[in-house]
UniProtKB/TrEMBL annotation:
Residues 92-132 form the B box-type domain. It comes from Astatotilapia calliptera (Eastern happy). This is Tripartite motif containing 35-12. PANTHER family: E3 UBIQUITIN-PROTEIN LIGASE TRIM (PTHR24103). Keywords: Coiled coil, Metal-binding, Zinc, Zinc-finger. Residues 14-54 form the RING-type domain. Residues 281-473 form the B30.2/SPRY domain. Residues 133-170, 194-239 form a coiled coil.
């Protein structure tokens, strides 16, 4: 029965619109079509040939085949009565052509749109046209791929957003920690200046007291001389008041005492009685600065905490580093080394000569040297010039130069001098005690180089920090 219904539906289908006949007309060649479909086809092709066999029609306006119409309407009526309201709504919403209420059956890949088989199918003969179901399946697969790309992109943005949140929180910690250390350093400097100020004020007061005592002593002697001279003057004046005989009997002694006192040297002011102001104020700031230099420490290399692996712990002054047993919660910022326990110096070099010393102590595994700015900080790379790292390394009791060559040393290295001659393309390593040469890398440098430090796992061994030491070029 179903086969018969299918054959009947095919017999009652218009070969232009592929729908059940509406007002069917039959040509002399016995091919039938919807009246409106045939007229539109003829209008498009500008002839009156049969759409199937191409035979020219003998009738310009074929009349409706009412027998075929009744049969077609009857079949269409059964289909309509058997369909649900939802299906009718979906059919209405999925039509391609408003003129024919055509449900899409074909899809033009070239123009990326559904095709009305009545109006414009003939316009797509040279295009790639596929069934709608196939097109929908392919397009959904493409859309699924686009959806996954969007989801992946969103996840990446979320990861970056999360990292930024970590950066914000870490920056707040850095702010508080750095403020604390700055205040501590300035408190030390201020304490030194306060102590130096009190010391110099005390020296000033001591000089004033010492010179005051000298002046007091001199003034006491002056007062005694004035008193003695006043007594002698009074005696002479009294002698001059005597008459001739008493005067003659006593003047001799008075005269002798007066002449003895007159022969005493005149009083002199003591030199240096005033405070030596120049001694206290002359080059005061410079002399304080010179003394301050004995209290402060200069490091030729400052470690960059923003490049440090989460297992590395830096000193407050950023001149020494140790490897810890636990990982710190640090943001994965672009500068940070995440795959190896590595960190860089804060200042890079792109010309000239530079030198510093590193105290490695008794660490069993370490890497010391220079690294190019663009080195991969997140992925796999070996400590060799091939990857932009020029270093000396110690591992398994051996010293190597990063290119697979073992380096012979006279004794275990506790301290190393690193020397860069950028313009000549040389990175050299020396014993700092006697400047014995250890090894040299020669290369052509094309970008900024940074001091490089990496610390391996020491196991159960107790190790000291790796420190940057001051050195002269």
């Amino acid at each position: 029965m179903a086969e018969k219904v299918r054959l009947l539906e095919n017999y009652l289908s218009c070969h232009v619109c592929s729908e059940t006949f509406r007002d069917p007309v039959s040509l002399s060649c016995n091919h039938s079509f919807c009246s409106s479909c045939l007229q539109k086809f003829w209008k498009q092709t500008k002839n009156k040939n049969c759409p199937i066999c191409k035979r020219k029609s003998s009738k310009d306006d074929p009349i409706v085949n009412f027998t075929l119409k009744e049969l077609a309407d009857s079949v269409a009526g059964r289909q309509k009565s058997g369909s649900s309201e939802t299906e009718k709504g979906e059919k209405k919403l999925t039509v391609v052509c408003s003129k024919h209420e055509e449900v899409p059956k074909l899809f033009c890949v070239d123009e990326q749109r559904a095709v009305c088989t009545v109006c414009d199918f003939s316009l797509h003969h040279s295009h790639k046209v596929v069934p709608v179901e196939e097109a929908v399946s392919d397009l959904k697969e493409q859309l699924k791929s686009d959806l996954k790309s969007l989801q992946d992109k969103r996840n990446k943005y979320k990861q970056v957003e999360e990292t930024y949140n970590e950066v914000i929180q870490h920056s707040k910690k850095q702010l508080l920690s750095t403020e604390r250390q700055i205040r501590a350093e300035f408190n030390k400097l201020q304490q030194f200046l306060r102590e130096e100020e009190e010391s110099r004020l005390a020296a000033l007061r001591e000089e004033e007291e010492q010179k005051g005592r000298t002046i007091s002593r001199e003034m006491k002697m002056i007062e005694e001389q004035i008193s003695s001279l006043s007594d002698s003057i009074s005696a002479v004046e009294e002698e001059l008041q005597k008459h001739s005989v008493p005067f003659l009997s006593s003047y001799k002694d008075t005269q002798s005492r007066a002449r003895a006192q007159s022969s005493v040297s005149d009083p002199q002011l003591v030199s240096g009685a005033l405070i030596d102001v120049a001694k206290h104020l002359g080059n005061l700031s410079f002399r304080v600065w010179e003394k301050m230099k004995e209290k402060v420490h200069f490091s030729p290399v400052i470690l960059d905490s923003n490049t440090a692996h989460c297992c590395l712990y830096l000193s407050d002054d950023l001149t020494s580093v140790r490897r810890g047993d636990t990982k710190q919660q640090l943001p994965d910022n672009p500068e940070r080394n995440t795959n190896y326990c590595t960190l860089f110096g804060s200042e890079g070099f792109s010309s000239g000569k530079h030198s510093w010393e590193v105290e490695v102590g008794d660490h069993p595994v370490w890497f010391v040297g220079l690294v190019k700015e663009s080195v991969d900080r997140k992925g796999e790379c070996s400590a060799s010039p091939k990857y932009g790292i020029w270093c000396l390394m110690h591992h398994s009791g051996k010293y190597t130069n990063g290119v697979g060559q073992t380096v012979t040393v006279k004794k275990s290295l506790q301290r190393i001098r690193v020397q860069l001659d950028y313009d000549r393309g040389e990175v050299s390593f020396y014993h700092p005690e006697d400047m014995t040469h250890i090894c040299t890398h020669r290369d052509t440098f094309t970008e900024k180089l940074f001091p490089y430090f990496s610390i391996g796992n020491a196991g159960d061994a107790k190790t000291s920090d790796i420190k940057i030491c001051q050195t002269e070029i």
